[in-house]
Design goal:
Layout: E1 10-14, H1 19-32, H2 39-52, E2 56-57, E3 61-62, E4 65-68, E5 75-85, E6 94-103, H3 108-120, H4 124-132, H5 136-144, E7 192-196, E8 208-212, E9 235-236, E10 239-240, E11 242-248, H6 255-270, E12 273-278, H7 289-294, E13 297-302, E14 317-320, H8 322-327, H9 329-342, H10 367-400, H11 419-435, H12 437-450, H13 455-467, H14 471-491, H15 502-522, H16 524-539, H17 543-559, H18 564-576, H19 584-610, H20 617-631, H21 639-644, H22 646-667, E15 670-671, E16 684-685, H23 687-710, H24 716-723
Parallel strand pairs: 1-5, 3-6, 4-6, 11-12, 11-13, 13-14
Antiparallel strand pairs: 2-3, 5-6, 7-8, 9-10, 15-16
Helix pairs in contact: 1-2, 2-24, 3-6, 10-11, 10-12, 10-18, 12-13, 12-14, 13-14, 13-15, 14-15, 14-16, 17-18, 17-19, 17-22, 18-19, 19-20, 19-22, 19-23, 22-23
């Protein structure tokens, strides 16, 4: 295995003006060395990671990174910019740019080395040495940590300055009050040795160390740091305050370990015992249960769901994004200490459930953003019930005919040799699945707001909504109310003796009673009236109004390709047929929504077929898969194209979706199944005209994409050539996406 960074991968005079151009310039060096096989494909992966969260850090650092199938071996490229490049950091442009490329299946050892770099970037002396380096070979050696390492496998802790500190070296600078002047790095074997001072006047002479075991990705240590002699401690009786923390980021390469390092340094400065579990790409080592049990508070600094989160239930918790862990660790420590003093606890969460929202939102988020996250949590969990139940009902109609909804219970009448009995069976199973739609919607809206304690009152409120005929609107209201009630209870100051029974007894009891009272007595009847009015309005749609609704649904279905707007439109359509005998207008709405959602992937597949030279090799391969995804009604099949070229792909997709939605409504096509794509065409009313509507939208979108891409200044066939191995310098200024 070649070295991760060499002089050929260093550009001390990086002239790029944008982050896209900087990534391209550094990536071209990787291509020239054979480390990256498809330039444009790799840059698309970098851009997709950048879209999740800016990679700029305080202190003039930009660290774009990704895992990609186009990377042959773990590689690091470094560029130094005289003018600075904007990577979205709060304090301004970055002059030090590190591009990290990890293979899709990178082994643990190499990802551990990448995590070591992330920790080193928190060392001010290390970054100062990079800024003063006068040759590429020296900069590469500094980043590799060639000195004072003594062998290939591990590095011994050195006593030199940050200028010659390698991956195993440790300096003795104290972290400042904000926790942003860290000083520890990792060895190649992923053993972090941190020694720091915490004297009230910044005295030298550290008294405590902390060895962190990280064999599977530089994860958390087995013991907490011990406060230095003379430090001011946050004591509880005669012991320091104890904190456990978890850090994680979408890629699990850089921010995960930088946040851990920042928190550890801030903990030493504050005189608290703080242990971090880093849930990185290479896996993670769980904290000892005894360490968690002894902790007085918990900090989650993450942008992906915390795995095994319920281990930390019942403790004061601060839940923020990973960049908050890097930029303001001291504030997080003060916040969790304050919560502990007030007796505020968090009751736990579903472990690694993959929910779209793991908390009530970031402190800086507006109410609208939080509300969208809460609603998306409920809709995302509801959609599988819609798909399964709707398809079962549709199959029941297909096998048993349209009178199958009047068949007796299969418990009382079922003949193995009769198709009608099998149709009735499928229909009745689907009906049971549909009965869960509103409770699941309400339950997981509450879960998105308040984690697992919100499930019970949310499901109770959703079931009451069905009982009083408040339907879909009632479920929305019940979920929001349930989540709000639980959040209010969790903020209350609870005696230590009651904390253990809060999640399983007190919170479910009080919240269910409050939600039930409000739904039955206060708001249930008005919501039921509003639900009936909406149903009547939908049933009365005809002519121009119906076409305009189809156009709007088409625009929404194609706006974000499976995102929040798409899900709102889909949930509106699916809720209309979530009954045993849906109205004709509701089935028209469902048909228009599904038809429009099929347009973007099919159009991208068609465009890559008729004008392949306008697309990179990777996009042409994605186009082949998009045929299958499109006919299956999976709008996400167009996401790779939209991520690489959003200003052309998304407007074109919306135009085609609007055409299809409007035509579907104009043709009077109906659909009883909420999913299935072309595989449920036999269940569609006016199927031939329905397919015509889809074909029209696909042609409109494909034509617009081809036209818009053909107007680009840089020929697309040159981009494809560059993606297949062009040498450095080709199109160095071309951004990843317009």
């Amino acid at each position: 295995m070649s070295e991760m960074i060499t002089a050929d991968l260093v550009d001390l005079d990086l002239s790029a003006e944008t982050k896209e151009a900087a990534a391209r310039a550094l990536a071209e060096r990787m291509v020239a060395l054979g480390r990256v096989t498809d330039l444009d494909g790799f840059l698309a992966d970098v851009a997709a990671r950048e879209a999740q969260m800016p990679t700029g850090l305080d202190g003039g650092i930009g660290i774009p990174h990704c895992r990609s199938a186009h990377v042959t071996e773990p590689t690091l490229a470094f560029g130094r910019s005289a003018d600075g490049i904007d990577f979205g950091a709060p304090d301004g442009p970055a002059d030090l740019v590190f591009l990290i490329a990890a293979p899709a299946g990178a082994d643990d050892a190499h990802l551990t080395i990448l995590s070591s770099l992330a920790r080193k970037l928190m060392d001010e002396e290390f970054t100062t040495a990079l800024r003063s380096a006068d040759d590429a070979a020296g900069a590469a050696a500094l980043i590799r940590g060639d000195e004072p390492t003594t062998d290939e496998g591990a590095a011994d802790a050195g006593e030199g300055s940050g200028a010659d500190a390698g991956p195993g070296a440790v300096t003795a600078d104290a972290a400042d009050a904000s926790g942003t002047s860290p000083k520890a790095t990792s060895t190649r074997a992923a053993t972090d040795t941190a020694a720091g001072t915490a004297g009230a006047a910044g005295t030298a002479g550290a008294a405590g160390t902390a060895d962190a075991a990280g064999a599977s990705g530089g994860s958390a240590g087995e013991s907490a740091p011990v406060a230095a002699a003379g430090a001011a401690t946050a004591s509880l009786g005669d012991r320091p305050f104890r904190i456990v923390a978890v850090t994680s980021c979408p890629t699990g390469i850089a921010h995960t370990y930088m946040a851990a390092e920042s928190l550890e340094n801030a903990g030493r400065a504050a005189g608290v015992e703080l242990v971090v579990e880093t849930q990185g790409s290479a896996g993670f080592t769980r904290l000892d249960p005894a360490v968690i049990a002894a902790a007085d508070g918990v900090i989650f600094a993450h942008d992906v769901p915390v795995r095994d989160k319920d281990r930390f239930a019942g403790k004061p918790t601060v839940d923020v994004g990973v960049k908050a862990g890097i930029n303001r660790p001291a504030e997080l420590i003060d916040e969790v200490r304050g919560k502990a003093e007030r007796g505020e606890v968090t009751a736990g969460a579903a472990a690694g459930a993959g929910t779209p929202v793991e908390s009530a939102g970031e402190p800086g988020e507006g109410y609208g953003t939080k509300l969208r996250k809460w609603l998306m949590s409920g809709v995302s969990y509801m959609v599988p019930f819609v798909a399964a139940g709707g398809l079962l009902i549709a199959l029941g109609f297909a096998i048993g005919g349209y009178q199958v909804n009047k068949a007796p219970s299969v418990m009382d009448h079922f003949l193995w040799t009769e198709a009608d009995s099998w149709g009735a069976l499928l229909f009745q199973i689907g009906g049971v699945a549909f009965d869960f739609l509103v409770p699941v919607l309400a339950g997981y809206i509450a879960y998105g707001m308040a984690d697992r304690p919100g499930l019970v009152p949310g499901f109770v409120g959703g079931s009451i909504s069905l009982t009083i005929s408040a339907g879909f609107l009632g479920g929305l209201a019940a979920g929001l109310i349930a989540g709000g009630v639980v959040m209010a209870i969790q903020r209350a100051r609870i005696p230590q003796a009651l904390r253990g029974i809060m999640p399983v007894v007190v919170i479910p009891l009080i919240s269910s009673a409050v939600v039930g009272f409000l739904m039955f007595v206060v708001i249930g009847k008005p919501i039921a009236s509003a639900q009936k009015a909406m149903t009547d309005w939908l049933g009365g749609l005809s002519g121009t109004n119906a076409i305009l609704l189809g156009l709007l649904l088409g625009l929404m279905m194609c706006f974000d390709l499976g995102g929040p707007v798409n899900k709102v439109a889909y949930a509106f359509a699916a809720s209309g047929i979530a009954v045993a005998d849906p109205s004709d207008s509701a089935m028209k709405v469902m048909a228009a929504a599904m038809a429009a959602g099929m347009v973007p992937p099919l159009a991208m597949a068609l465009a890559t077929t008729v004008r392949g030279r306008l697309f990179t090799r990777t996009e042409r391969e994605n186009g082949k898969a998009a045929w299958v995804l499109g006919i299956s009604f999976i709008s996400e099949g167009a996401i790779p194209f939209a991520a690489a070229d959003p200003l052309r792909v998304i407007p074109a997709s919306m135009a085609g979706g609007a055409v299809t939605g409007a035509l579907s409504m104009a043709f009077g096509a109906t659909l009883r199944a909420p999913h299935g794509g072309v595989f449920v065409v036999p269940l569609i009313g006016n199927p031939l005209l329905y397919l015509v509507a889809i074909a029209a939208g696909v042609c409109v979108t494909a034509a617009l994409v081809v036209l818009l891409k053909g107007m680009r200044g840089r020929p697309a066939d040159a981009a494809a050539t560059a993606g297949e191995g062009a040498t450095a310098g080709t199109g160095a200024k071309e951004p990843v996406a317009a």
